[in-house]
Write a structure and sequence with these properties.
Number of helices: 12
Radius of gyration: 19 Å
Shape: globular
Helix content: 40-55%
CATH superfamily: Phosphoenolpyruvate-binding domains
Order of helices and strands: HEHEHEHEHHEHHEHHEHEH
Strand content: 5-15%
Largest sheet: 8 strands, parallel, barrel
Oligomer: single chain
């Protein structure tokens, strides 16, 4: 029996846009509730959410248990973190702050067993192999790993063409907020210079035959990026959905029950994280 088929990796090879959401509560109960929604993929965030290996595992388990695609973003591209995540049964990783082709090559080696890489061989005691229940896991695991690298700096954009040549990188995800900050537009992903850079990057990624991803909570912007070639896109962040919903509920009910003037609407979240 081979390693489980990575349905998300397979979907990225089609023309169907994969629509996803961010999970930032670091809580399996919330993740399980979120997984009742018909998103194509769920990003469990280990970079900006208070996650560690045990909380990532618990969320991966409930998302996969619901028949959904789990993607994990680790906080940094350390080999030991990649090893642990893959042994948990994570098959798709989104790695942040990849500024060069050399960094991308190192991540590929971290993700793959020899001879293509240097992933440690210990899956026999891990969830990835169904605790040694998948007898053909080792010779088949590499084919089902999906590596997505996140480009979010001027340096990354300058080396993007080389990053796109790295064998083993399945897709490139643009981080609008960090990119804007590095370009001198902190908090302003809508700056024309930032938008133009994203547009150029999307075109280059798709021309190279790689999957192109981005996050935006603005519906019009999401449509724009899809029209420009993005084929995996996150459109919401659970923490923001909850916080904005709670603020609006409080304002609306207080206005109704106390006769207050209608409260100002909650601000719309920015483009990316």
């Amino acid at each position: 029996m081979p390693a489980p088929t990575n349905a998300f990796k397979a979907a990225l090879r089609t023309d169907d846009v994969q629509v996803g959401t961010w999970l930032g509560f670091a809580d399996a109960y919330v993740a399980e509730a979120a997984a009742t929604a018909d998103f194509d993929w769920f990003l469990i965030d280990g970079e900006h959410a208070p996650n560690d290996i045990p909380t990532i595992l618990s969320q991966v388990a409930v998302v996969q248990g619901a028949g959904r695609n789990a993607v994990v973003r680790l906080p940094i591209g350390e080999s030991w973190m990649v090893k642990q995540a893959l042994d948990l049964g994570v098959q798709t990783l989104l790695m942040p702050m990849v500024d060069s082709a050399e960094m991308a090559k190192k991540l590929v080696r971290d993700c793959l067993y020899p001879p293509q890489g240097h992933r440690g061989v210990g899956a026999g005691l891990a969830r990835a192999s169904d605790f040694n229940g998948i007898k053909d896991y080792l010779p088949t695991a590499n084919d089902e790993i999906c590596l997505l690298v996140q480009v979010e700096s001027r340096a990354a954009m300058e080396d993007l063409d080389n990053i796109l040549k790295v064998v083993g990188v399945d897709g490139v995800f643009i981080g609008p907020s960090d990119l804007a900050a590095d370009m001198g537009f902190l908090g302003n992903t809508g700056a024309p210079e930032v938008q133009a850079t994203i547009e150029s990057a999307l075109a280059r990624i798709r021309a190279a035959g790689k999957a192109a991803g981005i996050l935006t909570t603005n519906a019009d912007e999401a449509k724009k990026w899809v029209d420009m070639g993005a084929n995996f896109i996150a459109v919401s962040v659970d923490v923001i959905v909850y916080a904005e919903g709670m603020r609006k509920m409080a304002a609306d009910r207080k206005a109704l029950l106390k006769g207050d003037a209608a409260a100002e609407p909650a601000p719309t979240a920015g483009s990316g994280y």
